[in-house]
Amino acid sequence: MIKRHKTAKQLFSYPPYWAECYGVSPFLPTSREEMDTLGWDSCDVIIVTGDAYVDHPSFGMAVMGRLLEAQGYRVGIIDQPDWRNAEDFKRLGRPNLYFGVTAGNMDSLINRYTADLKVRNDDAYTPYGAGGKRPDRAVIVYSQRCKEAFQDVPVMIGGIEASLRRIAQYDYWSNEVRRSVLIDSTADILLYGNAERAIIDVTHELAMGKTMKELTNIRGTTIIRDTPPGGFTEIDSTRVDWPGKVEKIYSPYEYIPEGKCQTKDEKDSDVMPIRVIPAPLRRGEKLDPDKTYIRIPSFEKVSKDPVLYAHTSRILHLESNPHNARALIQKHGKKEIWVNPPPIPLETPEMDGVFDLPYARVPHPKYQKARIPAYDMIKTSINIMRGCFGGCTFCSITEHEGRVIQSRSHESILNEIEDIKAKVPGFTGHISDLGGPTSNMYTLNCKDDEIQASCRKLSCVYPTICSNLNTDHSPTTQLYRKTRAVEGIHTVSIASGLRYDLAVEDPEYVRELVTHHVGGLLKIAPEHSEKDTLSKMMKPGMGTYDRFKRMFDKYSKEAGKKQHLIPYFIAAHPGSSDEDMMNLALWLKTNDFKPDQVQTFYPSPMSLATAMYHSGKNPLKPVTYKSEDVYTPKDHKQRTVQKGFLRYHDPSNWKDLRNTLIQMGRPDLIGDSGNKLVPSADKDIQVPRRPQKTKPGQAIGASHTSNRPTIAKNTATEKARRKKHKSNVTTVTAGRSSPEPSRTTKRRKPKARTR
């Protein structure tokens, strides 16, 4: 009988490695000198990361490093190495077991480029916020350099950059489908998601003498195979155009690996027959998920056929529940990418154990007083949970952390507050956040383990909240009260995104939040106002927003506070037409919202919205060549116009918006009355250029690059000319511009941002 709800070995129950005798390091070493101080002759594991090393549970390298240290291993850190050659990858010597490579807390390309593919000048995970300290596609570059430094040392890749590229994926930056990063990086194994279980399993197996090639069935890992494993049932899902009727196959196909001939005496399990079932027939079969895999279209097919890409994306997301997911296999040339099922989520005691590790909670001392912006943001914040069952199609949290919520205990969270008080320099008593991927999914899970084990829904809250979902926020409310009561704590803010469709199900939680934890402004994310676009996002309608706003205003008034909601919206999302954006702009104007910072859809690898963007199909439903088409604004002009609708109040957008409204047949929205979206053309403001200083010896008005000598003038004549020039200086006023503004005209100061 198949066990419905899977369990895993307890995270801290493994016998420790012999090197535990070295004890706990103040910081994981980043140089040979630090290793010598600790008495180490070598590292068992070396983690290479694109982030500066901050010993804090919000930084992936610190979590993995401290976890392995707790298992008895000596772990070193190579942070932000010079990738231009292999020398910096040798700084800690040869690791005894493997290199662990991560791009850092952010995808290196999203970190480096905006949604409009402009280069960012800063990097929040680098000292002083300096940009350019990590390469593009850092996982690939770092992994190859590790192999160059020590060819015989295995390389493990992980973190969000590797996790979202475990199979063939659409790459926005090159506008093509790329191979699995496991192949391009030349690494030996890929760990995806929150990888505590996988990294412990892999490390202990290697320490016991196994090789990477022998580690084929560890959950949460992706490997390269030459052939599929024997003894499995293959569900063939490589096509979407099956015939109308598929006859049952009574004699199963037999798969014989290339180069091998199976005989009667052959006992190798790898050449056992593989039963192949076409996808349309799988529903009638009761198959053991542990002995079943799904063959998805090959890299060669999805790279040429966007419809098959959307189909593959749908399969991947349907196989994300760790309690019923099957392995996936995808051919890349002559190799097979094998994706084992997701890891079993951590139980509360295991989560507590991970966050209770002896983090220093500060950057490595070698940075001295250098400011690391990302650390400044999170140094007094606390992560209380992981995962998200919202299923927003544009978000990568689900693909990385999964849909099952993993929560810490109140005791562990309160202990972390004491840790912050003791270790964070200059702590003033303000906890900046209690949250995670969302602020209010803490302890919320399916009411029934058996139902959860069989569920394949992409979201627990769309189109409506599932009746099997626990929506009781009382554990969160109680946690808030306990944290406020801690001695020395005067403020506890909630900065993580709020899922307001869940919050309205528990008015007491909303009251607690609004009364004590909102500092005047609360950020929420309706993302859009129009039903068609929201359906492609898997987000609730504006009716839910209105319901939450009424509760927010009511409880703010009861608390005697003047507080406001700050809604976030996305432009140019798949499914969003210019008419949708126009209606959203009208909604914003009606509600007197003038967004300052706005977001344009950013196609991140592996998300469902990215599949829509690339394929023009909707993977939220079964995909065929005749299934629903999804319009997506792609070129720069389209995306700029849609972004302009969100900033309808910005004069720099008025010209484009007027042209678009005329093309849409909506010139009635152009004009000067209150119900118009943009003013008429004569209201445009001509902003003068910033005044520039002249170089010594340069005439007024001459080019800064001009080397022509000035002509000496009569002093009295020059004074008269300057007096006349000064009298002609005019200032720019709203609704009217000077015909010839002077270079000395002062620019108006921009309005203060609302966020």
Automatic annotation (TrEMBL):
One family name in Pfam for this protein: Radical_SAM_N
Cofactor(s) for this UniProt protein: [4Fe-4S] cluster
Chain sites annotated for binding [4Fe-4S] cluster: 388, 392, 395
Region (Disordered): 667-755
Chain intervals with Polar residues compositional bias: 703-717, 728-742
Top-level division of the source organism's lineage: Bacteria
SMART domains: Elp3
Metal-binding keyword on record: yes
Family according to the record: Belongs to the UPF0313 family.
Name of the featured protein: YgiQ family radical SAM protein
